[in-house]
Write a structure and sequence with these properties.
- The complex is a heterodimer of chains A (209) and B (140).
- By secondary structure, chain A is mainly beta.
- Chain A folds into two domains: 2-115, Immunoglobulin-like; 119-207, Immunoglobulin-like (Sandwich).
- Chain A contains two helices and 19 strands.
- Chain A has helices at residues 2-13, 37-42, and strands at 19-20, 26-30, 48-49, 53-60, 70-74, 80-83, 86-89, 93-101, 105-115, 119-124, 127-128, 132-135, 140-149, 152-153, 161-164, 169-173, 179-184, 188-196, 199-207.
- Chain B has 140 residues and is mainly β.
- Chain B has one domain (21-138): Immunoglobulin-like, CATH 2.60.40.
- Chain B has one helix and ten strands; from the N terminus they run αββββββββββ.
- In chain B, strands 1, 4, 5, 7 and 8 form a five-stranded antiparallel β-sheet that branches.
- The chains are: A mainly beta (209), B mainly beta (140).
């Protein structure tokens, strides 16, 4: 329900979410999940978390021509590797991504930053959760994990490890490695623990009778 | 108009004989924060590893930047240290009326990237002549 109400707003705000290349011939846009409002709004104006993967869309903006076939080159693969339309963040630093035509004309470039996350947070519809969450039997909660460094939300996804301390809540695969669907099974309490980006966070869950 | 036609060749001759006509290479993109991407007036390029720089060639008989340098090529003598490519520039050059270059010519741009710490040379050929650039790539 939250997703359906937030999505139009996020898409409306997303009008400027792409990041223009240095030569202003292209716009680089992260492929964000529909419920990841922070990602939708920020575009590529955030570092990618080391160890994370960020899918990318590139739109060329050259008057009078369609988009030619192009290739993307990382200036420093030790910082960020390019694999298809994905950026794989390796170690902290900065690397230019150069957009080349097949006959090696540089159409544009963009500098990408990689940072090591110092914490992860659990989010629902892009909002961080903390403290205790109360549920009733049968309630569902769709949670995602997001990397941060200080106050900065970082880009990038990584498969997370999810576990609970009791059977009061079931943790189900959602088809997306950064998300899980939690289902309250019966009265009781549980601590949800999530590990990703070599960081850990937890959330207390109480299922009321 | 007639006065301009008559005066222009004289001005050009005076400028060339005075040594004023020259190709000018200017950086057109800034470095990212805390990194280096510089092109100085001694044809030296300094780049942090992983950083890209775009620069442009213009030619000025009467004043710098009057004209584009036309068709060009660029080659890095050591592509493992610095990569170099022609840069696409769709903007049509708005040449002044007295310039040799007709309006509508594509700007002459290049992109260079620092791949690994070290030094190498870029060989640039344009319709206005050849130039060499010493490139130094430094670790950040």
């Amino acid at each position: 329900m939250h997703s359906s109400t937030l999505l139009p707003t996020a898409l409306a705000l997303c009008a400027a979410c792409g990041t223009e290349g240095a030569l202003r011939h292209s716009v680089f846009t992260p492929d964000c999940e529909e419920d990841d409002v922070a990602c939708l709004q920020a575009g590529l104006d955030a570092p990618i978390a080391s160890g994370g993967v960020q899918a990318l869309s590139i739109n060329l903006d050259i008057p009078g021509t369609g988009t030619p076939s192009f290739k993307l080159l990382s200036a420093d693969p030790s910082v960020v590797e390019v694999a298809g339309n994905q950026l794989r963040a390796q170690t902290p630093g900065v690397s230019a991504l150069v957009l080349l035509t097949q006959d090696d004309v540089a159409v544009d470039f963009l500098h990408i930053w990689v940072e090591t996350p110092d914490r992860i947070a659990l989010q629902r519809d892009g909002e961080a959760l903390s403290g205790t969450v109360e549920l009733l039997p049968g309630d569902e909660l769709l949670l995602a994990v997001a990397p941060y460094r200080g106050v900065n939300r970082l880009l990038g996804e990584q498969t997370a490890e999810w576990s609970t301390s009791s059977d009061a809540v079931a943790v189900l695969q959602d088809g997306n490695p950064r998300r899980r669907r939690l289902v309250a099974r019966g009265p009781g309490s549980a601590t949800l623990t999530v590990r990703a980006f070599e960081r850990e966070t937890s959330l207390d869950l109480v299922v009321l009778p | 108009m007639r006065a301009r036609v008559a005066i222009a060749p004289a001005l050009a001759l005076a400028a060339v004989s005075a040594g004023c006509a020259d190709t000018i290479f200017d950086a057109i993109t800034p470095p990212p924060p805390s990194r280096t991407a510089e092109l100085d007036d001694r044809d030296r390029i300094t780049l942090s590893r992983g950083v890209a720089l775009a620069f442009e060639c213009t030619y000025g008989v009467y004043q710098p930047g009057d004209e584009t340098c036309g068709a060009a090529t660029i080659r890095s003598r050591d592509p493992s240290i610095a990569g170099a490519w022609l840069g696409h520039a769709e903007e049509l050059y708005d040449a002044p009326q007295w310039a040799d270059t007709p309006s509508g010519q594509i700007r002459t741009r290049f992109v260079v990237v620092g791949f690994a710490a070290g030094s190498t040379t870029l060989d640039v050929h344009t319709e206005r002549g050849d130039r060499q650039f010493d490139v130094t790539v430094i670790d950040p």
